[in-house]
């Protein structure tokens, strides 16, 4: 069965990270320019309780620093360069605060997917801090929270029952739609190899969304759109926009 879903949400994975240093304001702004519908990013917390956007628990891969994010104060983190690793022309990019992305989202009118990174490092009260921040900007209706730590997602629902949550996973879960309901989740966020038409249909029958990651190949994008996913998380939001335009054109002929 082929389902053409014209409403597939184009989430830029860590911003337009295929062409710009991930999780920087430059990557986020470029994703908006490329026509994304939303931005997916990773939330961690500094030693002094500031919510920052960086994927790894350590700063080593994406900055010129070393060590765990949790061991840095925000002022210390600001002294690191988050662009130089990607190329000399990107030197000077910093690690953003969550507030900076919320401001961009509000100005651009886009959705946000905050992945809470609290698996390897357990950040105390990170859920409370992030949810309070989201509500302070009035962006709760355009945000979905996700995590590989499903206990965290249950906790988010305890704090803010109306805020959407998605369960991240890598492997083939059995009846994931039914499982997600036990966590009061609103969406499945599977690795794209772990999703198929049967899973999508079951999820939809349970009233769940399916937002899959990380798809960069146009052929895979096309297949997943036609299979009926609700959102695609990609490093190349411009590619996905082109695929969607192509499919919409084909559908209208």
TrEMBL record:
PROSITE patterns attached to this UniProt entry: GP_PDE
One biological process term in Gene Ontology: lipid metabolic process
Location of the GP-PDE domain: 8-244
Highest taxon of the lineage: Bacteria
Classification via Pfam families: GDPD
Entries under InterPro entries matching the protein: GP_PDE_dom, PLC-like_Pdiesterase_TIM-brl
GO MF, any single term: phosphoric diester hydrolase activity
PANTHER family: GLYCEROPHOSPHODIESTER PHOSPHODIESTERASE, CYTOPLASMIC, GLYCEROPHOSPHORYL DIESTER PHOSPHODIESTERASE
Name assigned to this protein: Glycerophosphoryl diester phosphodiesterase
């Amino acid at each position: 069965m082929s389902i053409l879903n014209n409403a597939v949400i184009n989430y830029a994975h860590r911003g337009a990270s295929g062409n710009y240093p991930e999780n920087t304001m430059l990557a986020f702004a470029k994703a908006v320019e490329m026509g994304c519908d939303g931005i997916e990013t990773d939330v961690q917390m500094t030693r002094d309780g500031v919510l920052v956007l960086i994927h790894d628990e350590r700063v080593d891969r994406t900055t010129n620093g070393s060590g765990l994010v949790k061991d840095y104060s925000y002022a210390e983190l600001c002294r690191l360069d988050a662009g130089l690793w990607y190329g000399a022309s990107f030197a000077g990019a910093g690690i953003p605060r969550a507030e900076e992305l919320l401001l961009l989202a509000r100005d651009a009118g886009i959705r946000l997917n905050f992945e809470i990174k609290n698996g390897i490092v357990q950040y105390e009260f990170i859920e409370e801090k992030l949810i309070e921040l989201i509500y302070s900007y009035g962006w709760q209706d355009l945000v979905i929270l996700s995590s590989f730590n499903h206990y965290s997602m249950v906790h988010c629902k305890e704090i803010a029952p109306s805020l959407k949550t998605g369960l991240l996973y890598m492997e083939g879960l059995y009846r994931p739609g039914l499982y997600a309901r036990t966590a009061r989740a609103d969406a499945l966020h599977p690795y794209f190899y772990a999703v198929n038409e049967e899973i999508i249909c079951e999820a939809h029958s349970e009233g769940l969304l399916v937002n899959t990651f990380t798809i960069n190949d146009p052929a895979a994008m096309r297949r997943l759109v036609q299979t009926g996913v609700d959102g695609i998380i990609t490093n190349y939001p411009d590619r996905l926009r082109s695929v969607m335009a192509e499919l919409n054109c084909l559908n209208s002929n």
